[in-house]
């Protein structure tokens, strides 16, 4: 029987429907709904009534898909916006009342662990020590790991929904605004820099929405011939640099027209690109890979192992 995994992120609500197979699990459906759960309240530790309504609407659309696949086993996870909001538990109770399933509001450390398990199912680390980065709307998860396991992990409350509410970002962004954001990142990431010095990762592996968008843009812009439904791809430094410059000099209207750009990412992709570039340079890394797998695939991997 298929299983549904729901990942209630700060920017999008994601759904994976999969069934166990001899090789782990087979994906039957993978989709998302834009929600922007953190809009208007994320830096106030609150989920607004409007955001809750957007969440309910997204869940109802996902439930239509879940019913079509005949799924009766549902696992739901709430991340940064829900765990930090004073009314996050209240929101989860309302979800239960409306839809009949419980939401597991997980810690940042648990979120990072699930992301690691998902990415390990899609990316071969080889002999490298890698730095995994999952950019969310509310938080960003970092994991330093290799094929033998996790060496270090931490969740930073530096999600892109928080950044766009904290900083003025013009259209297009100015150099001064970019510098202010980078200065803030530098002040907030001392724990990461210490871990990087200790463990020496060489590669960056990126997961979730912003990296998925960069990968989709790269496929269109550079006419990359990739295996259908490939779960990961390499973003060469030249490709990333070109996309970075394109995004930072673009307006919202221009980004909406870019092939591969999801409308839900238009607002957050610029600070996300700044964040990726800053981390890559500050940590002295030498390559970027994108993984299409993250938290929900990690949760499915755990179910398979059980």
Question: Which sequence of strands runs across the widest sheet?
Answer: 8-7-6-9-11-10
Helical segment count: 12
What Rg do the Cα atoms give? Answer: 18 Å
- What low-confidence regions span 5 or more consecutive residues with pLDDT below 50? none
Largest sheet: 6 strands, mixed
* Nearest-integer average pLDDT: 94
Shape: globular
The fraction of residues in strands falls at 15-25%
Quick structural gist:
The protein is α/β, with parallel strands linked by helices. Helix content is 44%, strand content 23%.
Question: What does this 3D model show about the protein?
Answer:
With 306 residues, the protein is of the alpha/beta class. Helices cover 44% and strands 23% of the residues. It contains 12 helices and 11 strands. A 6-stranded mixed beta sheet has the order 8-7-6-9-11-10, with helices on both faces. Strands 3-2-1-4-5 form a 5-stranded mixed beta sheet. Helix 9 (237-248) packs across helix 11 (269-282). The protein is globular and about 50 Å long. It starts with a strand and ends with a helix. The model has no long low-confidence stretch (mean pLDDT 94).
